[in-house]
Design brief:
Length: 328
C-alpha cells in the first residue's frame, strides 16, 4: 500500500514538473520571438519551435559537459536558435569559389618581436560588429573588415566601408550566393575604390550597382597572401599588419550556437571552407591558444559578435588556408 502511494506521488511530481517545464519553455519561446523579432505562420511556428527546443537540448547537454571539463567553450541561444545548422550554412555561409592566385606573398619584417597578445579592435582598426542578415555575403564583410583595418593603419581614420557596394558591383562574386574576398579586393583595385557604408548602406540583397566615385571611402592596390596552412606565418601577419581576412569551415552546429570560451571543434574540416571572417588578434585564454575572430552575424551571436577560435591545433577549421589582407 505504501509502495503504491509513493508511486502515485512520484508520478504526480513528474507530471507537475512536466507541466512546469512546458510552461517555462512557453515563456522562453515567447521571449525568444520578441527579442529577435520573429514572426511565423502557425504551421511554420510549430516547426521552428521544435528546432529551437532541440537546440536548447544541445546547449544544455554541451554546457553540462563543459562544466565537467570536457569542452573549452560554451554554447548559448541566439537569433539563429530556430534554425538547423544545415539551414544556417545554406543561408549565411557564403565563402565560395576558386581562390584567386594573383596576390603577393607575405614576408614578415626582420627581427619581428611577437607579442603574447594582440587585439586590433582595441587599437582603432576595427569597426563595430555588423550583421549580414539572411544573405550569404560573409565574403563582403570580411573584405571590408580587412580594408577598414589597412585604411586606418595608413591614414589614422576608421571608415566603415560598404558591403552593399561589393554585393551589387563585384561581378566575379555571386552576391548573396557567395564569393571570395580575393575577388572582392581585385574588384576594389580595378574599380578605383569602394564607397563608404554611410553613402551606400547595406540592404541584405543584391541590387543594381550604384557605385559613386565621389563617395569612395578607401582604395586598395591588391592583396597579400599568407602562406597557406602556416599558423606561425599567420600569427606574424596579424601581429605586424593588422586584421586578416580568412575563410573557415563554419558548418558545425557548435559554431552556430557558440557563446564563449575557446572554440575547439574536432569535427571541423581543415581542407574545406564555407564562411569568411576577420582575424583581429590572438592570445591565450585559460591555457589555450586562440585566434580572436570578428564575425558578421550581429552581436547576439558569440561574444558580442566575436569568437575565440583554437590556435595551434593543426590548423583547425582551416583557418590558415586562405588568409589574405589588402595593400593600400
Amino acid at each position: 500500500m505504501v509502495f503504491k502511494y509513493l508511486l502515485v506521488l512520484v508520478c504526480c511530481v513528474y507530471a507537475s514538473y512536466g507541466r512546469l517545464s512546458e510552461l517555462f519553455l512557453d515563456k522562453e519561446w515567447e521571449e525568444f520571438k520578441q527579442i529577435h523579432n520573429k514572426v511565423y505562420s502557425k504551421q511554420e511556428e510549430n516547426r521552428r519551435r521544435l528546432i529551437w527546443q532541440k537546440n536548447i537540448d544541445k546547449i544544455t547537454e554541451h554546457n553540462m559537459e563543459a562544466d565537467n571539463g570536457h569542452h573549452s567553450y560554451r554554447l548559448g541561444m541566439n537569433e539563429f536558435g530556430d534554425m538547423t545548422s544545415r539551414e544556417m550554412a545554406a543561408m549565411l555561409n557564403g565563402a565560395r569559389g576558386h581562390s584567386v592566385v594573383n596576390g603577393s606573398t607575405f614576408l614578415p619584417p626582420n627581427n619581428l618581436q611577437l607579442p603574447d597578445t594582440v587585439d586590433w579592435s582595441k587599437e582603432g582598426y576595427v569597426t563595430p560588429v555588423k550583421n549580414q542578415g539572411q544573405c550569404g555575403s560573409c565574403w563582403a564583410f570580411s573584405t571590408t573588415g580587412g580594408l577598414e583595418g589597412q585604411h586606418y593603419r595608413k591614414t589614422g581614420k576608421l571608415v566603415s566601408l560598404s558591403e552593399q557596394n561589393l554585393l551589387d558591383c563585384s561581378k566575379e562574386n555571386m552576391g548573396c550566393n557567395g564569393g571570395l574576398p580575393q575577388k572582392a579586393y581585385k574588384y576594389i583595385k580595378e574599380n578605383g575604390g569602394i564607397d563608404t557604408e554611410e553613402s551606400y548602406p547595406y540592404l541584405g540583397k543584391k541590387e543594381t550597382c550604384s557605385f559613386r566615385p565621389s563617395e569612395v571611402g578607401a582604395t586598395c592596390t591588391g592583396f597579400v597572401q599568407v602562406t597557406a596552412g602556416d599558423e606561425l606565418a599567420l600569427k606574424k601577419a596579424v601581429a605586424s599588419v593588422g586584421p586578416i581576412t580568412v575563410c573557415i569551415d563554419a558548418s558545425q552546429p557548435s559554431f552556430q550556437l557558440y557563446k564563449g570560451g575557446v572554440y575547439d571543434e574536432q569535427s571541423c574540416n581543415p581542407i574545406v571552407f564555407d564562411h569568411a571572417v576577420l582575424i583581429v588578434g590572438y592570445g591565450v585564454y585559460q591555457g589555450k591558444d586562440y585566434w580572436l575572430v570578428k564575425n558578421s552575424w550581429g552581436t547576439s551571436w558569440g561574444m558580442n559578435g566575436y569568437i575565440m577560435m583554437s590556435r595551434n591545433q593543426n590548423n583547425q577549421c582551416g583557418i590558415a588556408n586562405h588568409a589574405v589582407y589588402p595593400t593600400v
